[in-house]
Backbone:
């Protein structure tokens, strides 16, 4: 995939957007010795709340700054109490972490040390600049444990019920709850979904004179309620619903005659 994207970069600008922080995206998309921000023209972590253009960080926004510390603590405390009462087959941690906007420094430090896993080992509710990510079983679950939870969640709808309770409890805060991935869901201010990143592309016309009139988006959680839905149906993008990287590669090769 990285080889194909490298070739595609000679034909057009490329980028990625996701709810995860940059460290997690480095693990998912980069290599042990190559920073992911050097592989793409645009890198949008936390839906674009933390953004990079040609390897340089752009202005960030803060979830806690928007919500306020008191309301943030109420939300976090409620989530932790709720998680403590969920009967899941496994749980992997009860730690709440807040990351200040210093992601490039620890990422580069970890890479220089040769650390293969920059995940926090005890985080089940991780706070990011633009959102919080809530995982009923904990984000340091193994691959097999994650796969097992997918099946468990399909039957018992753990995340769906959790989100329903949060919407009722905190419906007045202007928050969006978006289920994505295998084991978690995101909580962020309404409007701070993946469409948030599009403002950076619009701003590029003033920065470099480039006007991105056609923006192709590829995602797998494109159904309503999925964390790709908003940007997939946005009128500013051409949405492509794909099941896996292999299908994405196939579509790209056909579109760009590669």
Residues:
């Amino acid at each position: 995939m990285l080889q194909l994207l490298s070739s595609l970069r000679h034909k057009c600008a490329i980028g990625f957007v996701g709810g995860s922080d940059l460290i997690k995206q480095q693990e998912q998309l980069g290599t042990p010795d190559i920073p992911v921000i050097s592989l793409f023209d645009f890198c949008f972590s936390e839906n674009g709340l933390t953004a990079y253009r040609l390897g340089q960080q752009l202005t960030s926004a803060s979830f806690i700054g928007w919500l306020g510390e008191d309301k943030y603590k109420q939300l976090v405390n409620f989530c932790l109490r709720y998680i403590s009462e969920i009967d899941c087959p496994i749980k992997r941690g009860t730690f709440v972490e807040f990351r200040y906007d210093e992601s490039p420094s620890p990422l580069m430090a970890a890479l220089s040390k040769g650390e293969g896993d920059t995940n926090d080992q005890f985080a089940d509710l991780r706070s990011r600049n633009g959102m919080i990510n809530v995982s009923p079983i904990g984000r340091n679950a193994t691959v097999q444990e994650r796969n097992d939870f997918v099946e468990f969640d399909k039957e018992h709808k753990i995340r769906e019920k959790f989100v329903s309770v949060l919407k009722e409890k905190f419906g007045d805060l202007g928050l969006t709850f978006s289920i994505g991935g295998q084991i978690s869901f995101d909580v962020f201010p309404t409007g701070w979904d993946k469409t948030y990143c599009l403002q950076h592309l619009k701003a590029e016309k003033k920065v470099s004179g480039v006007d991105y009139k056609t923006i192709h988006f590829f995602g797998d959680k494109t159904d309503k309620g999925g964390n790709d839905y908003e940007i997939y149906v946005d009128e500013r993008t051409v949405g492509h619903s794909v099941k896996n990287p292999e299908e994405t590669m196939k579509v790209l090769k056909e579109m760009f005659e590669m």
Summary: The first helix runs from residue 2 to 8. The radius of gyration is 18 Å.
